[in-house]
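The material for today's practical consists of a large collection of protein records. There is nothing in a record beyond a sequence line and a structure line. Backbone structure tokens are a discrete shorthand for how the chain folds in space. Nothing more is needed to start thinking about how sequence determines fold. As an example, a complete record with its sequence and its structure tokens follows.
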Amino acid sequence: MVQRIQEQNIRQWLGKGKAIIVTGPRQVGKTTLVRKITQSLDRKTLWLTGDDPEARSLLDNVSLARLQTLIGQNEVVVVDEAQRFTNAGLMLKLITDHLPHVQLFVTGSSSLDLAAQTKESLTGRKFEFSLYPLSFGEMCGQHGYLAERSLLEHRMLYGYYPEVAQNEPPQALKTLNDLSDGLMYKDLLTLDQIKKPTLLVKLLQALALQLGSEVIYNEVAQLIGADPVTVEKYVDLLEQSFVLFRLPSLSRNARNEIKKGRKIYFFDNGIRNAILKNFSPLALRNDTGALWENFLLAERMKRNAYTGHDCNTYFWRTTTQQEIDYVEDAGGRLHAFEFKWQAKKSARFPKSFLEAYPDSETTLIDQENFDAFVGIQ
């Protein structure tokens, strides 16, 4: 079993009288991680899973008396896939408020309802942790830096979902196909948030093809036969379900900076390639630069989440097509990054950016120096 970085982060906050909430995409190991932690506590544990219709029915009209009876002498309660329970927020609030001796764990693969239900009900009563597909750093810890480094091209094609990264190609491909065919946005379909599943598939394919490029909702809408409002709604739902994430444009000083642009990336390269049914070697592809960009941004997101590096993230572009791939704003200081698959000694950063943000730092990231960027020292 791969040692997850978030395990130690979570353990530091046990026994503080607050709920531990672990969110992230489906099948990235949230349940496995929580089970490992709870088993090590050697305390009576009750598991309630939202994927179980009987458990959902039992807690449909939740009350404190019913919870007390159900929990009994258990000292640890795990609510798995909590977003699928009706009134999950109320249930979690009752446990944290009235059963302080219980250590509550909550997992969710969709922030659709979970975030809304827990935002107010668990204010000041929770610690939140994000868990993503396996990271480059975690796999280095599993079998060594050199071995993982030699698999870089493979990871750019197949990604880091646990069942993918730790299995042979036939099983790995089946897992990716299952996920891309609907499993990872199961909650959207179950909750009837998506009225037109076929439109969702077209949207995902269109976004996968535009990886690394600025996404214009009007253009995407015309391409897939939808209206821009529906496209934006579906993108928002897919982001809340941890399928993809948006990177907004930075706009502060320069007159010709684009104001409301966005790029869209996938949480995992393997999912993106599975949507397009394209696992051709990098030498035969024309999207290697986009795959490298997606890989680096996903790994940086994991690194930032796991190390507590709090920052705002952007890309930068002008109306004259000057561009910087990625910009972080941490404590008011900008750090701009350019991504190149082929190693280069230096990169030219636009003069207009350097003049508009004279105190910013600039770094070129390529195959030779990406380690620190993704958290390997």
Q: What stands out?
A: The domain at 136-307 is CATH 1.10.10 (Arc Repressor Mutant, subunit A). The chain has 19 helices and eleven strands. The radius of gyration is 22 Å.
